[in-house]
Amino acid sequence: MKNYKKMLAMGLAALVLGACVPTQTSPGTSTDTINIGYSQLPANIHPAEDYNGWFTVRYGVGETLFKLNNDLQVEPWLAEKIESITDLEWKITLKDNITFQNGEKMTGEKVKQSLEHLLSKSDRAKADLGIASISADGQTVIIKTEQRQPIMANLLAEPYSVIIDVSAEPLAEQGPVATGPYKLTKYIAESGAELEAYEGYWAGTPKTKNLKIKYFTDATAIAAALKSGEVDAVYGLPYANLETFKSDSSNFKTSEVEGSRYVQFSYNLEQAEGQDKQFRQALDTLVDKETYTASLFKGAAKVADTAFPNNFEFALGTSVHEYNVEKAVQLLDEAGYKDTNGDGLREANGQNIKLDLVTYNRLAEMPLSVQAFQQQLKEVGIDSEIITVDKPTTAVSENIYDVLTYTVVAAPIGDPYAYYKSVFYTNGSANIAHYSNPAVDSLIDQLQVEPDQAKRNELSKQIQKLVDEDYIFTYIGHFKVALVMDNNLQGFESHATDYYHVTNQIVKE
């Protein structure tokens, strides 16, 4: 236990020291240009590919038919309204004053083409939406579904649903022509993007002429860039370093809200020991969530019981998890994972157990989490190796992990259905644990078609309870969503969804 606590202290000190750079000395760039640093940059920002639509929206390039307000309630955006015609039909009326960034009017036919393009490119969207057909007439779109889909507006707020002009000439295949306040002019996947204001933006001409997105792979570098004035704002700053900027209130400010982004350990149910529920329970029991969130995350995260913060009406609010090293030892012993040759390592089928712990640098705190977990494993006689990858998709597709450190926003559309369908459903598009439980699948099927909100909440809690008891994930903590910026920057605010960033209101004053 001493070694575990000592390792936590050393890791945290290293992370915080990375932010100890000189205070701002550069006046920054012209007020005509705003520079924003990000710790993530996809290969492109085509919304139908992977989760790239999040960046299409973050950069102010694309918009969806509906959006979520600060209370995560869905409301119209590019659409004027949505009406349920029958249990299987939705009628969407579009705003009549919107053009794409090439000057073309957004019509029903354009929206139809955009959604059909999405369905042809994204298995995740196709599974979520369940669309059978789409028709258009003027500024009206009719969507027919294969089954009842009571949360169609929520799903059409997901960033994969960004409306694009499919017929427009693509920009080096790296970004779409959409309806947002900023249009993409240059994109280099290794370094960043350049955008310029779209003068014909339907909600009003953007206040700033140019935006530059700068990509940083290093936590120290992104903090230093903000301190020096190289960038005006950052997203992805290590949470342990936030206090450095909060304490310098004469130069910097922070926009911070509670969110549903979590960090978890995912156990691979296709690996030998991972198939054993009691072994997974032992691993779960070794995770000290309280210390992780308080020390490693510097209080920027709250202990997670499930995928959703407990204030969400559809959250279970409890968990079978308990931190208890002695119980973990007992569980391992009872399951037959013992050290029979005296080398200090537990065995399975006559071979020392060695777990591959895979992590990546989406959050600076993630590698620290897995280092702490490795020390805990060592103290109960389990060998492990930490493997750091650029993206978790490689580890998942090649099935090369026993435990994967993972982060995601569980409720980006204000409803849990899409998360359950992709993560827990048998063969779901994001089922990284290779989990399959017929009872869970049945409840998700019921949730998909249930229109009553109270019943949806109850189904959601039942799903979480079953998954929790199967020990496929250890949810560690929910993070706040934080944007840190120079004091003179206005109109750049955090949102609980974690993807509404740039608007036409962003400006340096």
TrEMBL record:
A Pfam match: SBP_bac_5
Signal sequence bounds: 1-25
Name the UniProt record assigns to this protein: ABC transporter substrate-binding protein
GO MF terms held by the record: peptide transmembrane transporter activity
Annotated GO CC locations: ATP-binding cassette (ABC) transporter complex; periplasmic space
Keywords per UniProt: Signal
One BP term from GO: peptide transport
CDD domains for this protein: PBP2_NikA_DppA_OppA_like_3
Every Solute-binding protein family domain range: 73-429
